[in-house]
Amino acid sequence: MNTEADPLAEQVAFQEAPLAGHHHGYCGLEFREGTDLSLALGQQYSSLGSQPILCGSIPGLVPKQLRFCRNYIEIMPSVAEGVKLGIQECQHQFRGRRWNCTTIKDNLAIFGPVLDKGRKGGRKEGRKEEGEESAFVHAIASAGVAFAVTRSCAEGTSTMCGCDSHHKGPPGEGWKWGGCSEDAEFGVLVSREFADARENRPDARSAMNRHNNEAGRTTILDHMHLRCKCHGLSGSCEVKTCWWAQPDFRMLGDYLKDKYDSASEMVVEKHRESRGWVETLRVKYAFFKHPTERDLVYYEGSPNFCEPNPETGSFGTRDRVCNVSSHGIEGCDLLCCGRGHNTRTEKRKEKCHCIFHWCCYVSCQECVRVYDVHTCK
């Protein structure tokens, strides 16, 4: 018998019914046997969130995540959509870097190994890269889950959750609460229960991943803001209807990318407790500011990602398009790791000489333009 407390079950039990008029169906989703919900990067997730789900077929789940999936299968499409959202944002933020948030096929399942060397189906001995990239991926994916679940609840697509009714006093003179305030606390709870379920070992890796997961989720809570709509004759805005809303996810990605750029390097310390040896993290350089719960942390340097390496999920940078005029990381010198670059010309058809006609359409000609494309050797 499982006696472990379930905070999510307690939260769901006290959730108020979603607002009247919201649709409480399953968005066309059908949950039946025989479907694989792999989140490996590639075509596998192109239709993620619109597939039927079988919990046992999702790769990489630990037993606690499997129980979560079966107990709360109604919100699993939102969990999956959140991981997809996080990965897409990661690919945007790292689009000009040597590692552009790609990984070897089938190595990245839902909160499965992320840039983990030697970890396939469990932890193995040997060196593992625990760099800033891993920190960012955990943070943005955890934030993505919280964000997507929160949004799904506000849209009324789940009977388990709805809008946040715990308003913190009146919003101000001439304002009133209305609309659907997004319940980010519930989304964060779902993300915490699911994402942190695999990080239950007394080692440095679990400590690091739990910290970075929470840093990603805290970003959402820190950036909740009021949105208001004016009411009154001729736009007089005599009354404002206001509700709490999440920030745009791109803003969260930009914020966490800044945290990645200033991530704190840690060292691993071992000490014995009643349960055995436990690993904790301590800041490496005492003269640096100690990281807060909102900062990202790592304890090993990252590989250079110049060459293909299936253990770290690196495809290398050969044949990557580079910017010949840039001296930054996306420039041909750095991105190509000193190997040089090739240049070819491409002809592209584009619309040109567009004219607006009254009223109301635009006519364009088609022009062929020649571009120089530079790729790494």
Automatic annotation (TrEMBL):
It is found in: Secreted, Extracellular space, Extracellular matrix. The keyword Secreted applies. InterPro entries: Wnt, Wnt3, Wnt_C, Wnt_CS. GO terms for molecular function: cytokine activity; frizzled binding. GO terms for cellular component: extracellular space. The keyword Glycoprotein applies. This is Protein Wnt. The lineage of its organism: Eukaryota, Metazoa, Chordata, Craniata, Vertebrata. Keywords: Developmental protein, Disulfide bond, Extracellular matrix, Glycoprotein, Lipoprotein, Secreted, Signal, Wnt signaling pathway. It comes from Echeneis naucrates. Ligand for members of the frizzled family of seven transmembrane receptors. Its main location: secreted. One of its GO terms (biological process) is animal organ development.
